[in-house]
Amino acid sequence: MNAIYSSSIEPDPSDALDVLAFVLCPVDVFVPCGSHEERAAITEMLAPAKEEAVRKWLEADFLRTAN
């Protein structure tokens, strides 16, 4: 299966601003002229990645404050 979207940019999991920017990034950035169905599909695909970014930030923050 071919990748629909690929980027070398990843939010730094320990940087709250990076994670927040990624999580709040509107789907229009990824599908600027897409149909409602395309936008819905991309939104569905991005949801787990956004959840993972928040999880990684929480984990990094916990480790940072625990030490």
Q: Based on DSSP secondary structure assignment, what is the total number of beta strands?
A: 0
What is the SS-derived class? mainly alpha
Q: Bin the helical content.
A: 55-70%
Number of helices, where a helix is a run of at least 4 consecutive DSSP H or I residues: 2
Radius of gyration: 14 Å
Summary tags:
67 residues; mainly alpha; 0% strand
What's a concise summary of this model?
The chain has 67 residues and is mainly α. The chain is built from two helices and no strands. The protein is 60% helix and 0% strand.
Descriptive account of the structure:
By secondary structure, the chain is an all-alpha fold. The chain is built from two helices and no strands. The longest helix has 31 residues. It is elongated.
Summarize the helices and strands and which ones pair or pack.
Layout (H helix, E strand, L loop, with lengths): L15 H9 L11 H31 L1
Helix pairs in contact: 1-2
